[in-house]
Write a structure and sequence with these properties.
Keywords: Hydrolase. The chain is mainly α and 344 residues long. The protein has helices at residues 3-14, 40-49, 52-56, 75-93, 97-106, 115-125, 132-143, 154-161, 178-201, 212-218, 222-242, 252-270, 276-295, 302-311, 313-322, 326-337.
Length: 344
């Protein structure tokens, strides 16, 4: 018996009825031969980890654009925290951890430099708008491997596409697998809490600033809040399944508390006055780099010039800009616009 068969047999024995079994995958856009050891979801996870876009996450900002500290989150460390939280929830429920891990590791590959400020800029400039979850799919299907894409399974792509938003109330935005739904909640659990942690470290937020009623429900410390939310997600989802409802969710009170905590962070930190000046600087840089390449298509890498020919200038330049790390974007801005010493 092949090792892959043993792994898939173990999935049938250990996972709950509503879990996504790798042997039942809807497959890939391009059919591939099965491997002896790895299941399709294991292959997808490994392809994402070894991709260039995954490695670039280490230099993409989560919230704070430029820091001198080593302990502030980046888009990469956020991704790893989402993966850890979602695998814990998935294991507690009895779901496919390989599928969960693949979705979690790939969910933010389409994020732009300079946190959500970059997404706002490209959303203004690209006809039809720009969303990082949709860009993640473009990265995985059309941009990785010099335009060949990674040819991932439908379940992984669906979970990545539908990780945005705050609830599963709309079936249109709900992942087709419970594993994908787990990642959606884990993303919010991770970023709301680790952004609080980073904000306190930066001296921009104090624990006493957080509404007391939310602290009383979710917990005072970072670990307490994560534990409350993870436990609630596991037990509430198991309760849903016992009732015949195949849906991942938080309980009403805990879900409301997390939503209010997220709202507080948007008002105080994400869109607050504290970081307004740095947000505007980041947008200025991106606007000008975008404008430059709209006028100098010939200077972009070959893959993006091909996209310009097939899908237009705005799409090609957007794909190029969206893939940049914060540091690379700043290097290009300085190269393009900052005067150099030519006489010594």
């Amino acid at each position: 018996m092949l090792i892959r068969d043993k792994i898939q047999r173990n999935e049938e024995i250990t996972l709950i009825k509503g879990a996504a079994l790798s042997k039942n995958t809807k497959g890939r856009a391009k059919m591939e031969e099965l491997e002896d050891i790895r299941t399709p979801y294991m292959i997808d996870r490994d392809r994402i980890v070894h991709s260039k876009s995954f490695r670039r996450l280490k230099h993409k900002t989560q919230v704070y654009i430029k820091t001198s500290g080593d302990h502030y989150r980046t888009r990469l460390t956020h991704t790893l925290e989402v993966s850890q939280i979602s695998k814990t929830i998935g294991k507690g429920i009895g779901l496919n951890e390989d599928l969960i891990e693949a979705i979690a590791l790939g969910h933010d590959l389409g994020h732009v430099a300079f946190a959500h400020n970059g997404e706002e800029v490209l959303n203004e400039l690209l006809p039809g708008g720009f969303k990082h979850n949709e860009q993640s799919i473009r990265v995985l299907k059309y941009l990785e491997k010099n335009g060949k894409g990674l040819n991932l399974t439908e379940e992984v792509l669906d979970g990545i596409l539908k990780h945005s938003g705050f609830s599963n109330s709309s079936k249109v935005n709900r992942a087709i697998t419970l594993e994908g739904q787990v990642v959606k909640y884990s993303d919010k659990i991770a970023y709301v809490n680790h952004d609080i942690d980073d904000s306190i470290r930066a001296g921009l937020l104090r624990i006493k600033d957080i509404p007391e009623e939310l602290i009383n429900i979710l917990g005072k410390t970072h670990g307490e809040r994560i534990n409350t939310l993870v436990n609630d997600c596991v037990y509430n989802t198991l309760d849903n399944i016992d009732k015949g409802i195949l849906e991942v969710s938080l309980s009403k009170d805990i879900g409301h508390a997390l939503a209010q905590l997220r709202k507080f962070m948007f008002q105080k930190i994400y869109l607050g006055s504290i970081l307004k000046e740095e947000r505007e600087k980041a947008k200025f840089v991106l606007h000008n780099v975008y404008d430059y390449y709209m006028k100098h298509i010939e200077e972009m890498p070959h893959i993006y010039k091909n996209i310009v020919e097939k899908e237009g200038k705005e799409r090609g330049v957007t794909d190029y800009i969206a893939g940049m790390s914060d540091d690379y974007c700043l290097v290009l801005f300085n190269k393009i616009y900052v005067p150099k010493f030519v006489i010594y």
